[in-house]
Amino acid sequence: MPGELPDGQPVPADGSLPPAALAAVGRQGFGVYVHVPFCASRCGYCDFNTYTAQELGGGVRRETYADSVLAELDLAARVLGDNPPPRVDTVFVGGGTPTLLPADDLARILERIDATWGLAPDAEVTTEANPESVTPESLKTLRAAGYTRISLGMQSAAPGVLAVLDRRHTAGRATAAAAEARDAGFDHVNLDLIYGTPGESADDFAASLAAVVAAGVDHVSAYALIVEDGTRLAARMGRGELPYPSDDVAADRYLAAEAALGAAGFSWYEVSNWATSPDARCRHNLLYWTGGDWWGLGPGAHSHVGGVRWWNVKHPSAYAARLAGGASPGQGREVLSGTDRHTEDVMLRLRLATGLPLPVLDDAGRVAARRALADGLLDGAAYDAGRAVLTLRGRLLADAVVRDLLP
Questions:
Q1: How far apart are alpha carbons 311 and 10 in whole angstroms?
Q2: Cβ contact 262:381 at 8 Å
Q3: Is the Cβ–Cβ distance between 391 and 378 less than 8 Å?
Q4: Taking CA atoms, which of 10, 94, 110, 201 is between 20 and 30 Å from 155?
Q5: 200 to each of 164, 225, 315, how far by Cα in Å?
């Protein structure tokens, strides 16, 4: 089941933001995230804020969900008021499974975002999708509506691995859906992989990498399996039905991904993400990683505007009820301090191939950076140019490097 949200400070009933936050809207870019909390079934490893029809019961209807999202968009327009973003650079519709909504609803949401704040002429517009939840016809509708990018949850090409993860699609469906997206005219197509699943062999993962390369996509995300408390997968491991993931195996899989994707013309730009060109990088995620602003629409969605972060109530019925009553769906928020911003800047920028400017670090951090350089965790040429950039070995130990660089 979905994890818990932090408490935070109360969000004003009207969702209003401090004047200082309003004055800073969009200085480092502005995006919109739309959360769609519906799934046809729950994957065994998932603790995202998503719900199956059985979990929701009869109190929430997908048919009216888009109306609730548009109600929050209206509230967002009132909150930003005289301080709207100069443009919307990116839109990302995530979940859950966004493509369980009718394509016309996803089109209607995008149209209203454009009418509210204006999409940049080159805006990146992404939707996530499960491979079995799209058809050539729905993909053409989404592309005609202005969606430019799609991210498909492939996870693996091995049937046994998909079964352990409780995925519903067949082994070849993800790459077939990627081809359909290309045929529909999508500019960019991503395939997601998960590695380190119990029972996955090196050959299984090699076959998954070969499949994504053969699919002709221009972006690949690959993440180590994380076992979250409260999930079905965690329960199975707790009962001894499955072994826990191995850090050594995960490292081997990551090295295999770097080798296979690098040989196929992909370059890493974030520790878990590879693209065939700068244009193929996910600009919405880069907005997150470089301190931009975004408004998150939907239950459980997080937002960040001008140094204020807030999050919505999690359950779709509570979310809809708040908006129907004219109130913000925000559950809690925090105003980021200078220390908070510094910590996040180091944590996120160090994961990027562009790295972190060394002057951002304090004296102790710069000493730690010299140690990391001596240990082969930071790139020497980049260091000489004034930036901390992880080497391949450093990427394997990224979390430890971050801890050393922070106070």
A1: 10
A2: no
A3: yes
A4: 110
A5: 9, 11, 34
Q: Where are the beta strands (DSSP E) in 225-351?
A: 267-270, 273-275, 293-297, 302-305, 308-312, 330-335
- Distance, in Å, from the CA atom of 207 to the CA atom of 275, rounded to the nearest integer, reads 19
Q: Which two tokens stand for residue 191?
A: 């395939």
Region of residue 231 (left: phi > 0; alpha: psi -120 to 50; beta: else): beta
Per the structure block, which two tokens stand in for 194? 């998960």
| Polymer length in residues for the chain | 407
Please give the domain boundaries of the chain with CATH numbers for all domains.
Answer: 19-289 (3.20.20.70), 337-407 (no CATH)
Considering the entire predicted model, what is its pTM? 0.96
Say how far apart CA 149 and CA 171 lie, in whole Å.
Answer: 22
Cis check: omega of the bond before 96, within 30 degrees of 0: yes
Q: Tell me the pairing of strands 273-275 and 267-270.
A: antiparallel
In DSSP terms, which residues pair with 293 in a beta bridge?
A: 30
- Written as tens digits, the pLDDT of the chain (407 aa) is 455 667 789 999 999 999 999 999 999 999 999 999 999 999 999 999 999 988 887 667 889 999 999 999 999 999 999 999 999 999 999 999 999 999 999 999 999 999 999 999 999 999 999 999 999 999 999 999 999 999 999 999 999 999 999 999 999 999 999 999 999 999 999 999 999 999 999 999 999 999 999 999 999 999 999 999 999 999 999 999 999 999 999 999 999 999 999 999 999 999 999 999 999 999 999 999 999 999 999 999 999 999 999 999 999 999 999 999 999 999 999 999 999 999 999 999 999 999 999 999 999 999 999 999 999 999 999 999 999 999 999 999 999 999 999 98
Task: Measure CA of the first residue to CA of the last residue in the chain; give whole Å.
Answer: 34
Contact, 335 vs 351, CB < 8 A? no
